[in-house]
């Protein structure tokens, strides 16, 4: 397991154009970032292309990474998730069309990925703060934030999934985000 | 109170933006503010970092090796340049006698045009890791002929094997597609001859029929062997 200081060091050296550091960084982090791309895109070929773009971006942006402001892993995950969501959006018109055509919500039929109690217990104290803060939210609200983050759900997608009016969904989520912010800033 | 409201609104708007929930005019508004207000951009960035914790629940999956190969290609030039800089070259010796025999066979077959009994000066043995492809080579300095013998393996269907000279510390130079015959001779271009010396290496890569279209290896490097003096 590579620790935070190692990753910071690899990122800093990558920012200076050190290829060996970049490859070490890739070896240490690519499985996690590929997991994120796969989870968002649910398509291996697209996830591979996206992962490659993510590391090109990391190579370019590493020089701007500030260790004090973020954990290196969170910083890289943010890049991977955003790139994967962009890819997802790029193909979304087709998805929306098919959803409207047959009147069913394909997204709603995908299983939710909330971790079971077992996984939660195993993660223990290592759980990210945002996940600990999820515990202060009603389950369905935390699930809505998760779906937006990992499935790229819009307010409209979420309203459909949870079977509530669009404005109700907005109100729900805005309140939940406020609560999250309060919890995160504690 | 109104300050608090603004702060809350901004933070929530930043979170909505970071999550990708916004569309239409709201999205345009947020994008405009992101570009113009460093404070708002910071809020968005802080949310992106916090929300990344959600990915704790995502299982790591090892990506296929082609992703890293593609990155090396995109970032560091035409081809992964480092395989030839890093080849851990353990001389695998063909042996003076075997190399001499190889050259004599080549003379007998009329592959080399030389008057006297030539004596090879350098040799190399190239083998893939799984030993499925093994090639022995003997070099005749006086004529510039490289005699190669395929001892095991051959090209993949519809592909070619290309032979490369890797001068010490620099990029591979093509010596052409390996002839189909099991034993063959390749005349090394005069300009390359000084570089065919101890410290250099020979390599074989898998290429499209007809050889690499780029002048550099484009396919898998199948076998590498250091050149040693006899």
From TrEMBL, chain A:
Belongs to the sigma-70 factor family. ECF subfamily. NCBIfam families: sigma70-ECF (TIGR02937). GO terms for molecular function: DNA binding; sigma factor activity. Gene3D superfamilies: 1.10.1740.10, Winged helix-like DNA-binding domain superfamily/Winged helix DNA-binding domain. This is RNA polymerase subunit sigma. PANTHER family: RNA POLYMERASE ECF-TYPE SIGMA FACTO, RNA POLYMERASE SIGMA FACTOR SIGZ. The keyword DNA repair does not apply. InterPro entries: RNA_pol_sigma-70-like, RNA_pol_sigma-70_dom, RNA_pol_sigma70_r2, RNA_pol_sigma70_r4_t2, RNA_pol_sigma_r2, RNA_pol_sigma_r3/r4-like, WH-like_DNA-bd_sf. Residues 25-92 form the RNA polymerase sigma-70 region domain. One of its GO terms (biological process) is DNA-templated transcription initiation. The keyword Nucleotide-binding does not apply.
TrEMBL record, chain B:
One of its GO terms (cellular component) is plasma membrane. The chain crosses the membrane at residues 89-112. The keyword Transmembrane helix applies. Keywords: Membrane, Transmembrane, Transmembrane helix. Residues 95-221 form the Anti-sigma K factor RskA C-terminal domain. GO terms for molecular function: sigma factor antagonist activity. The keyword Transmembrane applies. One of its GO terms (biological process) is regulation of translation. This is Anti-sigma K factor RskA C-terminal domain-containing protein. It comes from Salibaculum griseiflavum. The lineage of its organism: Bacteria, Pseudomonadati, Pseudomonadota, Alphaproteobacteria, Rhodobacterales.
